[in-house]
Amino acid sequence: KQEVTQIPAALSVPEGENLVLNCSFTDSAIYNLQWFRQDPGKGLTSLLLIQSSQREQTSGRLNASLDKSSGRSTLYIAASQPGDSATYLCAVSDSNSGYALNFGKGTSLLVTP
Amino acid sequence: SAVISQKPSRDICQRGTSLTIQCQVDSQVTMMFWYRQQPGQSLTLIATANQGSEATYESGFVIDKFPISRPNLTFSTLTVSNMSPEDSSIYLCSVVGDALGTDTQYFGPGTRLTVL
């Protein structure tokens, strides 16, 4: 069964810093990998989707990379802002799960003014 | 993208009762899922809601405890039956696929359930 691990579990940075969130997965036969943001008391917001054939995706200050062979993905956030404070979740779909997602436990990010 | 609503947004229930959660999508989608997020944990897939047939349940989840209906391509319900405090969680539905034109999975806002 696919296992998804996210490091660090929590991160606190001052505003303006660039930061990297890490995600690893055990089965490289993935269909795609998604990064989500979850705010307290709210649902999930999709940030970036990377297909298994892609190496990276960018949206604004966010850049996600995928190294399928090593089972790793990183989410890079440039020039962090207090509004970026949230829990970031990594999730993969694979040949066993179909389109259903296997989630990591998330990284709780706090950006201080 | 897809706009998904869930009802109720939250509820407090007594042990032994049942609660039905509704999920409504603004477009027709083939694939719909139900997830559970226990306190302090990440999301775990409960089942895939199949239109016109029985749901497909993940290991550890059974139909008698979590019956699911999917009468059409825009609506589904999840019932949490004979509840215990261990069922206290956030329950989320999600959709992906064809009519949305993307593999991105979209989530509803969740239903926060507390069982006393």
Question: Could you characterize the architecture of this molecule?
Answer:
The complex is a heterodimer of chains A (113) and B (116). Chain A has 113 residues and is mainly β. Chain A contains no helices and 11 strands. Chain A has strands at residues 4-7, 10-14, 19-25, 30-38, 44-51, 56-59, 62-67, 72-77, 86-94, 102-103, 107-112. In chain A, the strands form 2 sheets. In chain A, strands 2, 4, 5, 9, 10 and 11 form a 6-stranded mixed beta sheet that branches. In chain A, strands 1-3-8-7-6 form a 5-stranded antiparallel beta sheet, with no helix packed on it. Chain A is globular, with a radius of gyration of 13 Å. Chain A starts with a strand and ends with a strand. The mean pLDDT of chain A is 94. Chain B is built from no helices and 11 strands. The radius of gyration of chain B is 13 Å and the shape is globular. In chain B, strands 2, 4, 5, 6, 9, 10 and 11 form a 7-stranded mixed beta sheet that branches. A 4-stranded antiparallel beta sheet of chain B has the order 1-3-8-7, with no helix packed on it. Chain B is mainly β. In chain B, strand 4 and strand 5 (43-49) form a beta hairpin. The N and C termini of chain B lie far apart (37 Å).
Secondary structure: elements and pairs:
The complex is a heterodimer of chains A (113) and B (116).
Chain A: E1 4-7, E2 10-14, E3 19-25, E4 30-38, E5 44-51, E6 56-59, E7 62-67, E8 72-77, E9 86-94, E10 102-103, E11 107-112
Parallel strand pairs in A: 2-11
Antiparallel strand pairs in A: 1-3, 3-8, 4-5, 4-9, 6-7, 7-8, 9-10, 9-11
Chain B: E1 4-7, E2 10-13, E3 19-25, E4 31-37, E5 43-49, E6 56-57, E7 68-72, E8 75-80, E9 89-96, E10 106-107, E11 111-115
Parallel strand pairs in B: 2-11
Antiparallel strand pairs in B: 1-3, 3-8, 4-5, 4-9, 5-6, 7-8, 9-10, 9-11
User: Percent range for helical residues of chain B?
Assistant: under 10%
Measured distance between first and last alpha carbons of chain A? 41 Å
Using the CA coordinates, give the radius of gyration of chain B.
13 Å
Distance between the termini of chain B: 37 Å
Integer average pLDDT of chain B: 92
How many helices of chain B? The count is 0
The sequence of SSEs of chain B as H and E is EEEEEEEEEEE
Structural class of chain A: mainly beta
Number of strands of chain B: 11
Overall number of strands of chain A: 11
